[in-house]
C-alpha cells in the first residue's frame, strides 16, 4: 500500500493539472484572459492552493495553456505527415487546423498581446514551418497540390480563418469548415467538384427594399 502511494500522488497531480488546463482553456476562449484564478480553480474542481501549486501566476497558467495549443497544432501536422497518402494527409491537416483555430478563437491573439515575452516563439515557429514545408512537399509529389503553393499560403489561410466572425461558436466552426473546403479546392492542381459543407448565416438577414411602385402612398 505504501509503495504505491508516491505513484498515486503523481497520478493525482497530473490529473489535477490537466483539469486546470482544460478549464483554463475553455474559460480563456469564452471570456478572455481576465478571469480570476479562483474561478478557474472552481471550474476545474480543485482548491486555490492546488491551482497555485501547479501555476504560481496567471502568466504561467496562460503560457502553459498556449503551449498545449501549439503542441496540438504541431500534432495535427505530424498526423498529416504520417498519413500514407500525402494528399489526404495535407487535406486533413488543413481541415483539422481550421477547426482547432475556430474552437480556440481569439486565444492566440489575446495571449500574444498580453504576454508577448512569455515564451520563445522562434524555436516553436521554426519547427512548425519546417514540418509544414515537408507536408507541402510530399503533397506536391503526388501531383494533386498546385506546384506554386508554399508555406506562406498556409499562413495566409490561417490569418484569414482567424478573421471569421459568427454569432455563435457553432456557426463559427461551420463557417471554418466551409472555408477549409474552399481552400483545399483552391490548392488543388486540378480543382475538384466535391460538395462544400453547409454555410451558416454569418450576418443578420436583410430585407430587400420594395420597389417604389409597391410602397404604400403617404398622401
Can you tag this structure with a few keywords?
219 residues, mainly alpha, 66% helix
Please explain how this structure is put together.
Helix 1 packs across helix 2 (37-44), helix 4 packs antiparallel against helix 5 and helix 4 runs parallel beside helix 7. The chain is globular. The chain contains nine helices and no strands. It has 219 residues and is mainly alpha-helical. The longest helix is centred in the N-terminal third of the chain and has 27 residues, at 5-31.
Taken as a percent bin, the fraction of beta residues is under 5%
The total strand number stands at 0
Radius of gyration: 23 Å
Q: Please tell me the overall pLDDT.
A: 83
Low-confidence stretches: 1-5
Q: How far apart, in Å, are the first and last alpha carbons?
A: 93 Å
Q: What's the number of helices?
A: 9
This entry's quaternary arrangement is single chain
The 3D shape can be described as globular
Compressed to H and E, one letter per element, the order equals HHHHHHHHH
Q: What structural category do the secondary elements indicate?
A: mainly alpha
Query: Helicity range of the residues?
Result: 55-70%
What's the main sheet like?
A: none
SSE layout:
Blueprint: H1 5-31, H2 37-44, H3 48-54, H4 58-82, H5 86-103, H6 107-114, H7 121-141, H8 151-162, H9 169-187
Give a quick summary of the entry:
The chain is mainly α. The protein contains 9 helices and no strands.
Amino acid at each position: 500500500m505504501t509503495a504505491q502511494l508516491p505513484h498515486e500522488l503523481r497520478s493525482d497531480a497530473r490529473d489535477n493539472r490537466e483539469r486546470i488546463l482544460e478549464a483554463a482553456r475553455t474559460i480563456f476562449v469564452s471570456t478572455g484572459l481576465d478571469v480570476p484564478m479562483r474561478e478557474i480553480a472552481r471550474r476545474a474542481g480543485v482548491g486555490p492552493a492546488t491551482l497555485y501549486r501547479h501555476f504560481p501566476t496567471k502568466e504561467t497558467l496562460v503560457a502553459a495553456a498556449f503551449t498545449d495549443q501549439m503542441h496540438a497544432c504541431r500534432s495535427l501536422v505530424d498526423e498529416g505527415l504520417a498519413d500514407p497518402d500525402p494528399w489526404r494527409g495535407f487535406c486533413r491537416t488543413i481541415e483539422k487546423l481550421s477547426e482547432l483555430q475556430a474552437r480556440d478563437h481569439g486565444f492566440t491573439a489575446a495571449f500574444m498581446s498580453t504576454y508577448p515575452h512569455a515564451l520563445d516563439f522562434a524555436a516553436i515557429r521554426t519547427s512548425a514551418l519546417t514540418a509544414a514545408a515537408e507536408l507541402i512537399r510530399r503533397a506536391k509529389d503526388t501531383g494533386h497540390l498546385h506546384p506554386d503553393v508554399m508555406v506562406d499560403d498556409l499562413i495566409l489561410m490561417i490569418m484569414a480563418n482567424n478573421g471569421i466572425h459568427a454569432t455563435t461558436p457553432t456557426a463559427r466552426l461551420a463557417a471554418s469548415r466551409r472555408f477549409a473546403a474552399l481552400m483545399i479546392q483552391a490548392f488543388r492542381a486540378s480543382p475538384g467538384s466535391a460538395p462544400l459543407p453547409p454555410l451558416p448565416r454569418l450576418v443578420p438577414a436583410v430585407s430587400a427594399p420594395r420597389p417604389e411602385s409597391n410602397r404604400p402612398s403617404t398622401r
